[in-house]
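Action item from last week, closing it out:
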Amino acid sequence: KEADIIASSTFPQSQLYRTPGEVITLSCKAPAGSRVTVKIGGQSYEMKPSGAVTNTKELYADTYKYDYTIPSFQGTPRNVDLGEPVYTMEYKGITKSAKAPAKVGAIMKNSPFYARIEKAVAYTYQTTNTSNGASYELYRGMVDYVTGMTGSFIRLSSGQWISKSDVMVYEEKAPIQPVVKSASYIVGEKWDSLKFDISSPAAAIASFDGKMLKLNISIASTSILPVLPQNSLFSAVKADKGDGKTQYTLTLKDNQRIEGYYVELTSTGIVLHVKRPVKAANGEKPLTGITIMLDPGHGGSDPGATGPWGWRYLEKAINFNMSTKLKAELESLGATVLMTRTTDVAVSLDERLTASRNVKPDLFISVHANSMNDNVDISKVDGFSAFYREELSIRGTWAPSVLIESGFVPNPEEFEWLISSEEQLKLAKTISEAVVKYFQQ
């Protein structure tokens, strides 16, 4: 072994951008017991070892860190290149340096540094960790400020992170300042629309907390309030400008609800579509005019949970058979019913979401059966579960969605009725009755 800085440990390994005032942790690995400094932006800083390595007589690597605050700059808004951090170690008379393979940059406020969505539908995330699922959708052609970059992700002015592969990053000579030229509220039979005529494409995301619907339009420099008709869904609308965006807040009328919403980018601007409550009809076919999408869980190479019969009768088959019976029951009540799969094929989560987005049903029902860990006493775990979100605050906000877990596949008693055609039909009738009651409220 030779005392040296491990090149692959030097930070950053890819271009990094942050705004002034943000703190990044510069790091590298060098022999324990070394004195390590880092030079960036013309200044040198002493780094601290982790302290995890106590044997400094032998040659062991330790991690050295320094919390560096991105400096502020004056003048025209722009990106400032701080260069590649250079790490230097001194160890038992040996001095060696290593330059990080990528640069650190500062993005000044209102710097004309933009990301344009290139993918038809791109998902944003709260952090660069995508395991908790996406937060919002953006659509091809939308444009937003870039306020950060790390690894394979870009941060937008909303604070949301998006994959680099979904956008084109570019700089302009001067800031883009889209102007909201007009705003109007149009009452429809099933969907109301808030139309914003904007001078150039901008990114927009919407959120709903059960009372207030908020629309954030990035980089918009002006705001115009739409006039709310008497028969609109909302009692008030206001606009707030700041931090490179305009936020519209619509307050729902008392005792009023909405059944969904979504944002659309058009050739002239942004449209926020809001769904009016869908009501059941009178008579023997109360679901007439109502579209329901059923989503049989798993399928194809994705078997789902395994029960007492092993691969002879898997969860994917239970879900599909249950869904076909539910489809027939709902159709007998007048509903138009679509399914995300009609055969034993694998359908990804994104494909299921796309199917729902394309149809925008009045209700989306995902049909599953439950499971449990191998170390659980299966005889003591049973029951039916249903999951939903009242606030329409997750992906697929254009329709109310519910996830049904019809029973526990590994439980022998529940498995018997889960695979029973008669019991499946009973459950299908019960769910159909519940759907009618939902649309009658």
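Closing note: The CA atoms of residues 186 and 193 lie 5 Å apart.
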